[in-house]
Amino acid sequence: MQEQFLYEYALVRVVPRVEREEFLNVGVILYCAKQKFLKLKYTIEPSRMHALCQKLDLHELESHLQALDKICAGGKDGGPIGSLDLPSRFRWLTATRSTIVQTSKVHPGFCTDATTTLEKLFQTMVLN
Known about the structure:
Helix content is 38%, strand content 26%. It is α+β, with helices and mostly antiparallel strands. Strands 1, 2, 3, 4 and 5 form a 5-stranded antiparallel beta sheet that branches.
């Protein structure tokens, strides 16, 4: 039997008009301490985004999501937050905020492979 590893994940949501609290799930951030894994997987579907908000600037949205991806990867490209350790970066990424890009509450689970689990969550929670 393969070893099971605790992981945590949060959905990444686009909330074009914060006051309306309407959102679309566009990605998943998954953190697994034992596998030293922190990654974001996201997609932007223009037709879905514009159905929610015609005025949404997709280029600006893309740059925000790329910034989150750089923080996940760590290093200089992730700025000051990118230099933090994995748990600190995950906690920063999933902190409650009132902006156009938000995350859900953090949810736990067990997996054998974090990459596979990230893909499954992305397929289930974002694409379907």
